[in-house]
């Protein structure tokens, strides 16, 4: 069994929405019943839950998935160790293939599937407002949010709202498009595929 601990879902029903969204997204890649998703809230709680799970599920594959929050210029554990606000040390017994980043935030992944974004927001959605770069992992998180707001400005929703829209969009986008545009997502999904069949 694969146990995935994700950053997201501030409290209560939002944790349910977060868990369901990641299950839907990842369930397009690996079979239902081979994995669980736990929405942990903020990133510190997510890391703490991951560390505890390493001991509770010592015979299973435990994964940590958090936003990078900024560009990634080194290996993942190095990034989490050096990043201001984190300073996380690799837990004893943890392996490199147990920690993954959404670079730079979960919403970055939305850029890989503008068709699903357009369908979600409906009439008036302006795809040309979305960042166009060869490497989408280089788009800063504030630019991600502002571009989603601009793209949604002429729709009924008028802006992108993380709580209202984020998890619904995640559940709808294609992981196959995401992995094509994000090397860190490709690494995560490849590990999940390999682990699910082993």
Detailed description of the structure:
β3, α3 and β4 form a beta-alpha-beta unit. The protein is built from 8 helices and 4 strands; from the N terminus they run βαβαβαβααααα. It is globular. α1 packs parallel to α6 and α7 packs across α8. The termini are close together. It has a 4-stranded parallel sheet, with helices on both faces. With 198 residues, it is α/β, with parallel strands linked by helices. Helix content is 44%, strand content 11%. It folds into 2 domains: 127 residues, no CATH class; 58 residues, no CATH class.
Task: Give a concise summary.
The chain is an alpha/beta fold and 198 residues long. The protein is built from 8 helices and 4 strands. It has 2 domains: 127 residues, no CATH class; 58 residues, no CATH class.
């Amino acid at each position: 069994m694969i146990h995935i601990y994700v950053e997201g879902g501030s409290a209560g029903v939002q944790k349910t929405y977060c868990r369901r969204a990641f299950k839907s997204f990842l369930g397009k890649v690996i079979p239902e019943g081979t994995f669980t998703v736990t929405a942990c809230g903020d990133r510190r709680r997510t890391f703490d839950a991951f560390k505890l799970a390493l001991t509770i599920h010592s015979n299973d594959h435990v994964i940590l998935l958090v936003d990078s929050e900024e560009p990634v210029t080194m290996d993942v554990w190095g990034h989490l160790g050096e990043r201001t606000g984190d300073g996380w040390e690799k837990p004893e017994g943890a392996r490199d293939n147990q920690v993954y980043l959404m670079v730079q935030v979960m919403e970055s992944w939305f850029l890989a599937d503008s068709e699903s974004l357009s369908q979600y927001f409906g009439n008036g959605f302006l795809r040309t407002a979305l960042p166009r770069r060869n490497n989408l992992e280089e788009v800063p998180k504030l630019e991600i949010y502002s571009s989603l707001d601009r793209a949604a400005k002429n729709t009924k929703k008028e802006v992108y709202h993380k709580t209202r829209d984020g998890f619904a969009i995640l559940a709808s986008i294609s992981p196959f498009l995401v992995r094509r545009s994000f090397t860190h997502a490709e690494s995560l999904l490849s590990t999940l595929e390999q682990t699910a069949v082993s």
